[in-house]
Amino acid sequence: THEREQLESDLHNQIAGLNDHNGQLQHQNGELEQLRDQLQHERDGWRQLFLSVHDDYS
Known about the structure:
This protein is mainly α. Helix content is 97%, strand content 0%. The chain has one helix and no strands. It is rod-shaped, with a radius of gyration of 25 Å.
């Protein structure tokens, strides 16, 4: 029936939209993970600096 075809078409479009959105989220997630690694690296650098300065004055 025409109604069934319309429903299947709508579902197909919704799934395509969700897949597209999922791809965008995975991409953003990858960028966030890179940022997190970068920040952890910087934080470790600051910690090393702090410890070395702290050792100098203790």
